[in-house]
TrEMBL record:
<dbReference type="InterPro" id="IPR006176">
    <property type="entry name" value="3-OHacyl-CoA_DH_NAD-bd"/>
</dbReference>
<feature type="domain" description="3-hydroxyacyl-CoA dehydrogenase NAD binding">
    <location>
        <begin position="294"/>
        <end position="469"/>
    </location>
</feature>
<comment type="similarity">
    <text>Belongs to the enoyl-CoA hydratase/isomerase family.</text>
</comment>
<dbReference type="InterPro" id="IPR008927">
    <property type="entry name" value="6-PGluconate_DH-like_C_sf"/>
</dbReference>
<keyword id="KW-0413">Isomerase</keyword>
<keyword id="KW-0560">Oxidoreductase</keyword>
<keyword id="KW-0511">Multifunctional enzyme</keyword>
<dbReference type="Pfam" id="PF02737">
    <property type="entry name" value="3HCDH_N"/>
</dbReference>
<keyword id="KW-0576">Peroxisome</keyword>
<dbReference type="InterPro" id="IPR018376">
    <property type="entry name" value="Enoyl-CoA_hyd/isom_CS"/>
</dbReference>
<keyword id="KW-0520">NAD</keyword>
<dbReference type="InterPro" id="IPR006108">
    <property type="entry name" value="3HC_DH_C"/>
</dbReference>
<dbReference type="Pfam" id="PF00378">
    <property type="entry name" value="ECH_1"/>
</dbReference>
<dbReference type="Pfam" id="PF00725">
    <property type="entry name" value="3HCDH"/>
</dbReference>
<comment type="similarity">
    <text>In the N-terminal section; belongs to the enoyl-CoA hydratase/isomerase family.</text>
</comment>
<dbReference type="InterPro" id="IPR036291">
    <property type="entry name" value="NAD(P)-bd_dom_sf"/>
</dbReference>
<protein>
    <submittedName>
        <fullName>3-hydroxyacyl-CoA dehydrogenase NAD-binding domain-containing protein</fullName>
    </submittedName>
</protein>
Length: 675
């Protein structure tokens, strides 16, 4: 097998190039090749400096994550990194693309770093539940300062080459098209420089207060995660003990995280997110339909948010409403959202104008005739949607894709109201649609392969994580939400309070519990609107205009700032229903709440798989992580079920009288996992 590492002499400089597509991950072959190149440089007196660079789209994007679950292969990355720094000839990292994780650590071990302006540097290990385990937590604060090292390690976001330059993490910026030449010139300049600047020989200093403040400021963001604190502790160590001891501490902390369940969950999600874009049975090189203009019907919160996704990606949007006032309001909201982003420095004022300039508001459906994709985001009612799709069928150009943003309705029935069901599918965005990363793409019985593939690829263009769902009530996400909400209501009857149930969910790591969610979404959603018809607790709340946060009362009472407090009135209503229905009550433990609200979700997920409504268990995990805020450190409901043990889930379901899905029972009996 040929090595991904090649070496070439440029006068007295040895250029070491890695070519390991797609992202130059630092797998065993790459490490072995670099190690050999270092030995070549050390053993040859005519070599005076070394440049390490990468072919393809990026500098090393990190350790090879696929190796983490296999036995380690020498040379290990920490050893290699030490060898780079230890070479007694200058080593220069020439960086383009992204120098991430182990890639950034290789760069830190080099004596000098040069980067093109478009490059990014970062240590995203924390997002995989890890920390930079090849000296990164010890070298980064010594090179770039403690404050930046804390930000970069504990949050994991990369920084630009110019920020890195300012911080001393990059010594010099290269021309965008002349990286190698500029690196060679740099190498020639420093070839004779001694002593060599070694990160391990620098010191990192900071007041203890810096760490306390950082922990406090970010406590909410880090809640539930193990890795951020481990990163902080390592950086703190760098300010307290000599380099070697710091490395040892880093190593121990890394191994602890690596073998923990959180990192396994976070790595699972990293790969699951990428797997989700692959559609079983459709070739990855299928010809896609060009999408040059998108039409959106409905300029409400949803339609406006959907439009922003395309505008931000540089795709013009025609947005349609029925009334001028609603159209103006919708357009103004889009502008307001963009201006808020500009005020926060996330985009430039020019970008605001560019996006708004690409938005074409209109009152006429006929104006959608030149759109390649039309997304309907109107009122959730089958008759309304069918009528609209009938009209679109006559207006849209041939091969235009027609999508419904329905959250529950039957996409096949909608498609049947057109003469081109092969061009119809569902695109279920999650509110706020310009923020939430999930896109459920609903594949109808007749949806053409290229239509599905086009929309899945478009998902990536608009920076969503797109997941394919079959046609079933509520698709993947909302279908699994239903049993959770139903069980939560039953638990109220059995003696629990909304606060108790929500608390268990929040402690589990969810952003909010079932009742907090109802109050946010609106208790009146789906209500029959007849205040005299009171059949359940929800009807009783709705009849009293306890519609949630928007009316300052729902399952909780709210003050003007929307701070919730337990509601005595809700307690009364619940009690009335318990009496009315003669409900048996008992002390409800936290464990019972988990078993009765989360286990049924797993059961529903198993049914979804059984029916072929999701392609794979990991897709279900991705839906719940990106659409509903399931804690990523628990890897999604199906991965979590695997970690709980499927036998335990089955036993829990049986204990509470649920009918167990066949797939779940079979897997439990065979000792298998979902993922
Ligand atoms: N190891 C193994 N495979 C990797 C990888 C890695 N570090 N990074 C990316 N890949 C794979 C992806 O799984 C994907 O495979 P597929 O085509 O089979 O699905 C392929 O490379 C392309 O990746 P993307 O689709 O993500 O490509 P993009 O161009 O969108 O993004 C990227 C490129 C920004 C580099 C992104 O892939 C990324 O963020 N990668 C992870 C970076 C990271 O976390 N590095 C730290 C690793 S841990 C580490 O270094 C530990 C050390 O401290 C000891």
């Amino acid at each position: 097998m040929t090595s991904p590492i090649t070496t070439a002499r440029h006068g007295d400089i040895l250029v070491v190039t890695s070519d390991n597509p797609p992202v130059n991950a630092l797998g065993a072959a790459v490490r072995t090749g670099i190690d050999a190149a270092l030995k070549e440089a050390a053993g040859d007196d005519s070599i005076h400096a070394v440049v390490i660079t990468c072919a393809g789209k990026t500098f090393f994007a990190g350790a090879d994550i696929t190796e983490f679950s296999k036995p380690p292969v020498e040379p290990l990355l920490p050893t290699l990194v030490d060898s780079i720094e230890g070479l007694d000839k200058p080593v220069i990292a020439a960086i383009h693309g992204t120098a991430l994780g182990g890639g950034c650590e290789v760069a830190l071990a080099c004596h000098y770093r040069i980067a093109v302006p478009s490059a990014k540097l970062g240590v995203p290990e924390v997002k995989l539940g890890l920390l930079p385990g090849a000296g990164g937590t010890q070298r980064l604060p010594r090179v770039a300062g403690v404050a930046l090292a804390l930000e970069m390690t504990a949050k994991g976001d990369p920084i630009s080459a110019s920020q890195a330059h300012e911080a001393g993490l990059v010594d010099r910026l290269a021309g965008e098209a002349s990286l190698l030449d500029d690196a060679l010139a740099f190498a020639a300049e420093v070839a004779a420089a001694r002593p060599l600047p070694r990160a391990s020989e620098k010191t990192a200093t900071a007041d203890a207060q810096v760490f306390a403040d950082f922990r406090k400021t970010n406590a909410r963001r880090f809640r539930g995660f193990d890795a951020p604190e481990a990163n902080i502790a390592c950086v703190e160590k760098a300010t307290q003990v000599p380099f070697g001891q710091g490395l040892q501490f880093e190593r121990e902390s890394f191994m602890k995280l690596m073998f923990g369940v959180q990192s396994a969950a976070q790595r699972h999600i990293f790969f699951s997110e990428r797997k989700a874009s692959k559609i079983d049975g459709i070739a990855s090189d299928i010809a896609l339909r060009p999408i040059k203009r998108v039409g959106v019907i409905g300029a409400g919160t949803m339609g406006g948010g959907i439009s922003m996704n395309f505008l931000s990606a540089g795709i013009p949007v025609t947005i349609v409403e029925m009334q001028q006032e609603a159209l103006d309001r919708g357009t103004a909201t889009v502008r307001k959202n963009y201006e808020a982003s500009a005020a926060k420095g996330r985009i430039t004022p020019d970008q605001v104008e560019q996006a708004m300039g690409a938005l074409n508001p209109t009152l006429s459906l006929e104006d959608l005739a030149d759109c390649d994709l039309i997304i309907e985001a109107v009122y959730e009612n089958m008759d309304v949607k069918k009528e609209l799709f009938g009209k679109l069928d006559k207006i849209a150009k041939p091969h235009a894709i027609l999508a419904s943003n329905t959250s529950y309705l039957n996409v096949d029935e909608i498609a049947a109201s057109t003469s081109r069901p092969q061009d119809v599918l569902g695109m279920h965005f999650f509110s706020p649609a310009n923020v939430m990363k999930l896109l459920e793409v609903v594949r109808g019985a007749k949806t053409a392969d290229d239509v599905l593939a086009t929309v899945m690829a478009l998902g990536k263009t608009i920076r969503k994580v797109a997941v394919v769902s079959g046609v079933c009530h509520g698709f993947i996400g909302n279908r699994m939400l239903m049993p959770r909400q139903v069980e939560a209501m039953k638990l109220l009857m059995a003696g629990a309070t909304p606060e108790q149930i929500d608390k268990v969910h929040v402690a589990f790591g969810m952003p909010m519990g079932p009742f907090q969610m109802s109050d946010l979404a609106g208790v009146d959603i789906g209500w029959h609107r007849d205040p005299t018809r009171i059949e359940n607790i929800r009807d009783a709340l709705a009849a009293e205009k306890r519609w949630g946060q928007k009316t300052q009362a729902g399952f909780y009472d709210y003050d003007e700032k929307r701070n919730p407090s337990p509601s005595p009135r809700v307690a009364e209503i619940i009690e009335e229903f318990r009496v009315r229905e003669g409900a048996q009550q008992h002390d409800i433990t936290d464990e019972e709440i988990v078993e009765r609200t989360l286990y049924p979700m797993v059961n529903e997920g198993a049914l979804i798989l059984e029916e072929g409504m999701a392609q794979r268990a990991s897709d279900i995990d991705v839906v719940w992580i990106y659409g509903y805020g399931w804690p990523v450190y628990r890897g999604g409901p199906m991965f979590w079920a695997d970690t709980e043990g499927l036998k335990k889930i089955v036993a829990g379901l049986e204990k509470h009288g649920f009918e167990v899905a066949k797939l779940l029972r079979d897997k439990a009996e065979k000792g298998e996992r979902f993922n």
